[in-house]
Amino acid sequence: MADDSGRLVKRTAMMTIAVACLVLGIKYAAYWVTGSVALFSDALESIVNVVAGLVALWAVSVSYKPADVDHPYGHTKAEYFSAVVEGVLIVVAALVILREAYGAYLVPRAIEAPMLGIAINGVATVINLFWALHLLRQGRAHRSPALDADGRHIMADVVTSVGVLTGLAIAGATGWAILDPALAALVALNILREGWKVVAASLSGLMDQALDPADDTRAREIISASAQGAIEVHDVRTRIAGRAVFIEFHMVVPSQMRVVDAHAICDRIEDALQDAFAGARVLIHVEPEGEAKQVGVPVL
């Protein structure tokens, strides 16, 4: 099952590179026919998409490698590095765009064939929209930070493109050349914001962020409902490492309980958690009843 998931994620990452190259070519054509610095900024962001796609493919390939002696917990965190690199690339692209926008502000130039450029760029925007939605679905389905980061970035690219196209239509209708560099600057500021969001989300994962509150509550409810025979569960801790979920806790059992019976309770809890969180790694520390804290997860 994991192998099938890995192949699908890798295939999606490879297709992302192909889509990014196609969109880049279309957007550059829009810039070429218009000379618009705003369309140039939109095309430059697509270059980031291509590079980010290559990095994501590498990260996904590494993340599906099995655990080994040097990495006993697996390689799932590799995908976070992809998202960090993508965030850095976004920041670099934004700085280049701001530089181009400033030059166009100092020396404004008329936009040639604006409606043709809008039409060409619109095709690329529609392609990006459908692919971003696909990446976001796949990222959620396979708990892939790399695909999710790519999807969020491309969706931000779609929003940026819509703003650029709207502004260019106004500039073409009014002849206000100053709108072109102004739009480019807004594109840069928007992708800076998105770049920060991508990096922040990735750093949270690298810092062993816990499950979100809803999933944490669900995990505790599953433990409570599956721990019949135990006295209590306490010190529940969770963390996320890419698509992998780690759940650990202490379970207090009667002092006279046989090891085989305590083990059966552990197996029941593990199976229930792994059904709810695919591939969850569960660690249970069994304690005698003298260790009860009366502050943990109640056993139903």
TrEMBL record:
Keyword Cytoplasm on entry: no
Q: Which residues form the Cation efflux protein cytoplasmic domain?
A: 215-289
The record's Gene Ontology biological-process terms are: intracellular zinc ion homeostasis
Q: Which GO terms describe its cellular component?
A: plasma membrane
Gene Ontology MF: a single term: zinc efflux antiporter activity
User: What positions does the domain Cation efflux protein transmembrane occupy?
Assistant: 16-207
Recorded hits in Pfam families, A to Z, give:
Cation_efflux (PF01545), ZT_dimer (PF16916)
The alphabetized UniProt keywords are: Cell membrane, Membrane, Transmembrane, Transmembrane helix, Transport
Ranges annotated as spanning the membrane: 12-31, 37-60, 80-98, 110-133, 154-179
Q: What is its main location?
A: membrane
Q: Which domain of life is it from?
A: Bacteria
Q: How does it sit in the membrane?
A: Multi-pass membrane protein
Family affiliation = Belongs to the cation diffusion facilitator (CDF) transporter (TC 2.A.4) family.
What protein name applies here?
Answer: Protein p34
Q: Which organism is it from?
A: Aureimonas flava
Query: What high-level taxonomic lineage is stated for the organism?
Result: Bacteria, Pseudomonadati, Pseudomonadota, Alphaproteobacteria, Hyphomicrobiales
